[in-house]
Design brief:
Length: 264
Protein backbone atom coordinates (compact mmCIF):
# COMPACT_ATOMS: atom_id res chain seq x y z
CA UNK A 1 0.00 0.00 0.00
CA UNK A 2 1.55 3.37 -1.02
CA UNK A 3 2.54 5.92 1.59
CA UNK A 4 4.21 9.30 1.41
CA UNK A 5 7.49 10.02 3.23
CA UNK A 6 10.31 12.53 2.93
CA UNK A 7 12.79 9.68 2.51
CA UNK A 8 12.44 5.88 2.29
CA UNK A 9 11.89 3.96 5.54
CA UNK A 10 11.78 0.24 6.34
CA UNK A 11 8.37 -0.72 7.73
CA UNK A 12 8.89 -4.48 7.38
CA UNK A 13 8.48 -4.85 11.16
CA UNK A 14 4.76 -4.18 10.73
CA UNK A 15 4.34 -7.75 9.45
CA UNK A 16 4.26 -8.96 13.04
CA UNK A 17 0.87 -7.23 13.40
CA UNK A 18 -0.51 -8.50 10.10
CA UNK A 19 -1.32 -7.01 6.72
CA UNK A 20 -1.57 -3.25 6.24
CA UNK A 21 -4.99 -2.24 4.94
CA UNK A 22 -4.97 1.45 5.83
CA UNK A 23 -2.34 4.20 5.93
CA UNK A 24 -2.77 7.65 7.48
CA UNK A 25 0.31 9.65 6.56
CA UNK A 26 -0.90 13.28 6.61
CA UNK A 27 -0.45 14.14 10.30
CA UNK A 28 1.88 16.97 11.26
CA UNK A 29 2.73 15.33 14.60
CA UNK A 30 5.54 13.22 13.17
CA UNK A 31 3.46 10.08 13.64
CA UNK A 32 2.31 7.78 10.86
CA UNK A 33 -0.65 5.48 11.47
CA UNK A 34 -1.62 2.11 10.07
CA UNK A 35 -4.60 -0.19 10.10
CA UNK A 36 -3.43 -3.82 10.22
CA UNK A 37 -5.18 -7.16 10.20
CA UNK A 38 -3.77 -10.54 11.21
CA UNK A 39 -6.89 -12.39 10.05
CA UNK A 40 -8.50 -12.60 13.48
CA UNK A 41 -8.00 -9.12 14.87
CA UNK A 42 -7.44 -5.63 13.56
CA UNK A 43 -5.08 -3.06 15.05
CA UNK A 44 -4.46 0.65 14.77
CA UNK A 45 -0.72 1.30 15.08
CA UNK A 46 0.63 4.81 15.67
CA UNK A 47 4.35 4.93 14.92
CA UNK A 48 6.90 7.66 15.58
CA UNK A 49 10.38 7.63 14.08
CA UNK A 50 9.75 7.76 10.34
CA UNK A 51 10.34 10.86 8.16
CA UNK A 52 6.69 11.82 7.63
CA UNK A 53 5.93 14.41 4.95
CA UNK A 54 4.12 16.96 7.13
CA UNK A 55 6.17 16.64 10.33
CA UNK A 56 7.26 19.93 11.84
CA UNK A 57 9.49 18.22 14.42
CA UNK A 58 12.36 15.74 14.27
CA UNK A 59 11.88 11.97 14.45
CA UNK A 60 13.47 11.88 17.93
CA UNK A 61 11.06 14.56 19.14
CA UNK A 62 8.11 12.63 17.69
CA UNK A 63 9.26 9.49 19.52
CA UNK A 64 9.60 11.36 22.82
CA UNK A 65 6.15 12.93 22.36
CA UNK A 66 4.46 9.62 21.60
CA UNK A 67 6.09 7.97 24.62
CA UNK A 68 4.93 10.82 26.83
CA UNK A 69 1.25 10.36 25.95
CA UNK A 70 1.05 6.67 26.87
CA UNK A 71 0.28 7.38 30.56
CA UNK A 72 -2.56 9.69 29.49
CA UNK A 73 -4.35 6.91 27.58
CA UNK A 74 -3.84 4.55 30.51
CA UNK A 75 -5.02 7.05 33.14
CA UNK A 76 -8.10 8.04 31.13
CA UNK A 77 -9.15 4.56 29.98
CA UNK A 78 -12.89 4.66 29.34
CA UNK A 79 -15.50 2.79 27.23
CA UNK A 80 -15.60 5.73 24.80
CA UNK A 81 -11.83 6.17 24.51
CA UNK A 82 -9.89 4.27 21.87
CA UNK A 83 -8.34 1.26 23.63
CA UNK A 84 -4.54 1.19 24.00
CA UNK A 85 -3.38 -2.44 23.88
CA UNK A 86 0.40 -2.23 24.02
CA UNK A 87 3.48 -0.11 23.28
CA UNK A 88 6.96 -1.05 22.17
CA UNK A 89 10.24 0.24 20.81
CA UNK A 90 10.53 -1.27 17.36
CA UNK A 91 11.82 -0.50 13.88
CA UNK A 92 14.09 2.24 15.12
CA UNK A 93 11.16 4.11 16.61
CA UNK A 94 8.21 3.72 18.97
CA UNK A 95 4.81 2.18 18.34
CA UNK A 96 1.54 2.48 20.24
CA UNK A 97 -0.86 -0.31 19.37
CA UNK A 98 -4.57 0.36 19.71
CA UNK A 99 -7.66 -1.72 19.11
CA UNK A 100 -9.01 -1.00 15.63
CA UNK A 101 -12.51 0.39 15.38
CA UNK A 102 -14.56 0.47 12.19
CA UNK A 103 -15.69 4.05 12.61
CA UNK A 104 -16.14 7.25 10.65
CA UNK A 105 -14.41 10.41 11.77
CA UNK A 106 -15.98 13.86 12.08
CA UNK A 107 -12.71 15.54 11.12
CA UNK A 108 -12.81 17.72 8.03
CA UNK A 109 -9.36 16.44 7.06
CA UNK A 110 -11.24 13.33 5.89
CA UNK A 111 -13.88 14.91 3.59
CA UNK A 112 -15.86 11.78 2.72
CA UNK A 113 -15.97 10.56 6.33
CA UNK A 114 -16.90 14.06 7.50
CA UNK A 115 -19.79 14.10 5.02
CA UNK A 116 -21.01 10.70 6.23
CA UNK A 117 -20.65 11.77 9.85
CA UNK A 118 -22.64 14.98 9.47
CA UNK A 119 -25.35 13.01 7.62
CA UNK A 120 -25.93 10.80 10.66
CA UNK A 121 -29.46 11.13 12.09
CA UNK A 122 -29.85 13.92 14.64
CA UNK A 123 -30.74 11.39 17.36
CA UNK A 124 -27.37 9.68 16.89
CA UNK A 125 -25.48 12.99 16.93
CA UNK A 126 -27.25 13.92 20.18
CA UNK A 127 -26.09 10.62 21.68
CA UNK A 128 -22.53 11.28 20.48
CA UNK A 129 -22.60 14.69 22.19
CA UNK A 130 -23.83 13.15 25.43
CA UNK A 131 -21.13 10.47 25.25
CA UNK A 132 -18.51 13.20 24.74
CA UNK A 133 -19.77 15.08 27.81
CA UNK A 134 -19.71 11.89 29.88
CA UNK A 135 -16.12 11.16 28.85
CA UNK A 136 -14.98 14.65 29.71
CA UNK A 137 -16.69 14.51 33.10
CA UNK A 138 -14.50 11.42 33.60
CA UNK A 139 -11.46 13.41 32.40
CA UNK A 140 -12.21 16.11 34.98
CA UNK A 141 -12.74 13.57 37.76
CA UNK A 142 -9.33 12.07 36.94
CA UNK A 143 -7.69 15.48 37.41
CA UNK A 144 -7.05 16.24 33.73
CA UNK A 145 -8.02 18.99 31.32
CA UNK A 146 -8.79 18.43 27.64
CA UNK A 147 -6.50 20.29 25.25
CA UNK A 148 -6.71 20.04 21.45
CA UNK A 149 -10.10 18.31 21.43
CA UNK A 150 -11.57 18.93 17.98
CA UNK A 151 -13.68 17.31 15.26
CA UNK A 152 -10.86 14.92 14.33
CA UNK A 153 -11.02 13.48 17.86
CA UNK A 154 -14.62 12.33 17.37
CA UNK A 155 -15.51 9.02 15.73
CA UNK A 156 -18.68 6.96 15.48
CA UNK A 157 -19.07 3.25 14.80
CA UNK A 158 -22.48 1.95 13.73
CA UNK A 159 -21.31 -1.44 15.03
CA UNK A 160 -22.60 -1.28 18.56
CA UNK A 161 -23.78 2.32 18.11
CA UNK A 162 -20.55 3.50 19.74
CA UNK A 163 -18.91 6.88 20.14
CA UNK A 164 -15.12 6.67 20.09
CA UNK A 165 -12.76 9.45 21.14
CA UNK A 166 -9.19 9.41 19.88
CA UNK A 167 -6.15 11.67 19.76
CA UNK A 168 -6.04 12.92 23.36
CA UNK A 169 -2.27 13.38 23.17
CA UNK A 170 -2.30 16.95 24.55
CA UNK A 171 -4.61 16.32 27.51
CA UNK A 172 -2.80 17.41 30.66
CA UNK A 173 -2.97 17.11 34.42
CA UNK A 174 -4.32 20.02 36.42
CA UNK A 175 -3.36 22.69 37.24
CA UNK A 176 -2.48 23.83 33.74
CA UNK A 177 -1.53 27.38 32.73
CA UNK A 178 -1.40 28.56 29.13
CA UNK A 179 2.28 29.25 28.49
CA UNK A 180 1.99 29.65 24.71
CA UNK A 181 -0.68 32.14 23.80
CA UNK A 182 -2.61 30.22 21.15
CA UNK A 183 -2.72 26.61 22.28
CA UNK A 184 -2.97 23.60 19.98
CA UNK A 185 -6.39 22.96 18.54
CA UNK A 186 -9.15 24.01 16.19
CA UNK A 187 -10.41 27.54 16.83
CA UNK A 188 -14.00 26.28 16.45
CA UNK A 189 -13.61 24.42 19.77
CA UNK A 190 -11.33 26.82 21.67
CA UNK A 191 -12.24 29.18 24.50
CA UNK A 192 -10.79 32.69 24.85
CA UNK A 193 -8.38 31.51 27.54
CA UNK A 194 -6.86 29.06 25.06
CA UNK A 195 -5.61 32.09 23.13
CA UNK A 196 -4.41 33.96 26.24
CA UNK A 197 -0.93 33.49 27.65
CA UNK A 198 -1.01 33.10 31.43
CA UNK A 199 -4.66 32.02 31.55
CA UNK A 200 -5.79 29.04 33.62
CA UNK A 201 -6.97 26.09 31.52
CA UNK A 202 -9.40 24.10 33.64
CA UNK A 203 -12.79 22.42 33.76
CA UNK A 204 -14.57 25.71 33.03
CA UNK A 205 -12.45 25.91 29.88
CA UNK A 206 -13.67 22.43 28.98
CA UNK A 207 -17.30 23.48 29.56
CA UNK A 208 -16.72 25.87 26.65
CA UNK A 209 -15.24 22.99 24.61
CA UNK A 210 -18.36 20.92 25.26
CA UNK A 211 -20.66 23.75 24.20
CA UNK A 212 -18.63 24.23 21.04
CA UNK A 213 -18.87 20.50 20.37
CA UNK A 214 -22.67 20.71 20.64
CA UNK A 215 -22.84 23.44 18.00
CA UNK A 216 -20.41 21.53 15.77
CA UNK A 217 -22.29 18.24 16.04
CA UNK A 218 -25.88 19.43 16.06
CA UNK A 219 -25.82 22.64 14.01
CA UNK A 220 -22.90 22.00 11.66
CA UNK A 221 -20.69 24.50 13.54
CA UNK A 222 -23.31 27.26 13.30
CA UNK A 223 -24.06 29.11 16.56
CA UNK A 224 -27.09 31.12 15.48
CA UNK A 225 -30.52 30.23 16.95
CA UNK A 226 -31.95 29.93 13.42
CA UNK A 227 -29.74 26.91 12.72
CA UNK A 228 -30.30 25.19 16.07
CA UNK A 229 -32.34 21.99 15.50
CA UNK A 230 -33.58 21.37 19.05
CA UNK A 231 -35.63 23.08 21.74
CA UNK A 232 -34.45 26.61 22.48
CA UNK A 233 -34.00 25.74 26.16
CA UNK A 234 -31.15 23.48 25.05
CA UNK A 235 -29.78 26.23 22.82
CA UNK A 236 -29.66 28.61 25.77
CA UNK A 237 -27.73 26.04 27.85
CA UNK A 238 -25.15 25.47 25.11
CA UNK A 239 -24.91 29.19 24.34
CA UNK A 240 -24.13 29.89 28.00
CA UNK A 241 -21.47 27.16 27.96
CA UNK A 242 -19.71 29.02 25.14
CA UNK A 243 -19.80 32.41 26.82
CA UNK A 244 -16.58 34.39 26.59
CA UNK A 245 -17.08 35.24 30.27
CA UNK A 246 -15.98 32.29 32.39
CA UNK A 247 -18.31 33.23 35.22
CA UNK A 248 -21.35 32.96 32.95
CA UNK A 249 -20.57 29.38 31.92
CA UNK A 250 -21.62 26.30 33.84
CA UNK A 251 -18.88 25.79 36.43
CA UNK A 252 -18.39 22.07 35.79
CA UNK A 253 -19.11 19.57 33.05
CA UNK A 254 -21.37 17.70 35.45
CA UNK A 255 -23.46 20.86 35.88
CA UNK A 256 -23.69 21.16 32.10
CA UNK A 257 -24.80 17.52 31.84
CA UNK A 258 -27.45 17.99 34.52
CA UNK A 259 -28.84 21.16 32.90
CA UNK A 260 -28.90 19.47 29.49
CA UNK A 261 -30.72 16.39 30.78
CA UNK A 262 -33.23 18.46 32.75
CA UNK A 263 -34.11 20.52 29.64
CA UNK A 264 -34.54 17.57 27.24
Amino acid sequence: MPLRLKTPFDFSFLKMYGRVFKVLDSQDSGNICFGLSDGDKKYFVKFAGAPTIHANISASEAIANLKSVVPIYRDLAHPNLVNLINTEEIGGGFAAIFEWTSAICMGQQYPEQHRQFMALPLTIRIKIFEDIMAFHAHVAAKGYVAIDFYAGSIMYSPIGDKTIICDIDFYAKKPYVNQMGRLWGSSSFMSPEEFTKGADIDEITNVYTMGAAAFALLANFNRTPEKWPLDMKLYDIVKRATSDERGQRQQSIQQLIEEWQAAK
